[in-house]
């Protein structure tokens, strides 16, 4: 059996001036207040030939309605996760085995009012908040937890103390 490839993807750890990180609640999990996986960091696919730095700013604009951010760091490695069995019926899981991600730390240069989840006609998220970076692993679904733990290690230096 031939293994499917990983989908190229970028992710954003967006820090506000206080050193907190933007997390957003998935619109398909509206009752996710205390559940792992309901809240996540913005992330999305990379178009063929697209520069990764351009892609992460595009994804921010698409998912949270603003690109008012500057890149302050890039994770030095690609991080991967496989789609779990319960997601195998997803259309994307029929083309890809999981995602291969390059993560960026960004400084938010706008105001909270610039974050507009309704900017997309089919928003991925229905709520957002600022969180301490240490919260990320407990918010993550199991198959993304190791990545979020790595992001805390790599980008923790930009966080609130």
TrEMBL record:
Cofactor(s) named in the record: a divalent metal cation; Mg(2+)
Pfam families reported for this sequence: NUDIX
Ranges of residues in domain Nudix hydrolase: 5-153
Motif Nudix box boundaries: 44-65
GO molecular function: bis(5'-adenosyl)-pentaphosphatase activity; guanosine-3',5'-bis(diphosphate) 3'-diphosphatase activity
Known EC number: 3.6.1.-
Keyword list, A-Z: Hydrolase
GO biological process, one term: nucleoside phosphate metabolic process
Coiled coil region boundaries: none
InterPro entries: NUDIX_hydrolase-like_dom_sf, NUDIX_hydrolase_CS, NUDIX_hydrolase_dom, RppH
Domain of life from the UniProt record: Bacteria
Group of enzyme by EC: hydrolase
Statement: the UniProt record of this protein carries the keyword Amino-acid biosynthesis: no
PROSITE patterns: NUDIX, NUDIX_BOX
Keyword Hydrolase part of the UniProt annotation: yes
Function: Accelerates the degradation of transcripts by removing pyrophosphate from the 5'-end of triphosphorylated RNA, leading to a more labile monophosphorylated state that can stimulate subsequent ribonuclease cleavage.
NCBIfam families associated with the record: PRK00714.1-3 (NF001936), PRK00714.1-5 (NF001938)
The family this protein is said to belong to: Belongs to the Nudix hydrolase family. RppH subfamily.
This protein's name: RNA pyrophosphohydrolase
Organism encoding this protein: Falsiroseomonas algicola
Gene name per UniProt: rppH
């Amino acid at each position: 059996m031939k293994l499917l490839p990983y989908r190229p993807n970028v992710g954003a750890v967006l820090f506000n001036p206080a050193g907190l990180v933007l997390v957003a609640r998935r619109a398909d999990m509206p009752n996710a207040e205390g559940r792992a996986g309901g809240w996540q960091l913005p992330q999305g696919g990379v178009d063929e030939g697209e520069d990764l730095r351009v892609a992460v700013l595009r994804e921010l604009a698409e998912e949270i309605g603003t690109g008012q951010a500057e890149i302050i760091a890039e994770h030095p490695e690609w991080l991967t996760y496989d789609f779990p069995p319960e997601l195998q019926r997803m259309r994307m899981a029929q083309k890809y085995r999981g995602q291969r991600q390059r993560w960026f730390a960004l400084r938010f240069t706008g105001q909270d009012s610039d974050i507009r989840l309704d900017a997309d006609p089919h928003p991925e998220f229905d709520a957002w908040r600022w969180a301490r970076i240490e919260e990320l692993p407990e918010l993550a679904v199991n198959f993304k937890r190791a990545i979020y733990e790595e992001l805390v290690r790599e980008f923790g230096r930009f966080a609130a103390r």
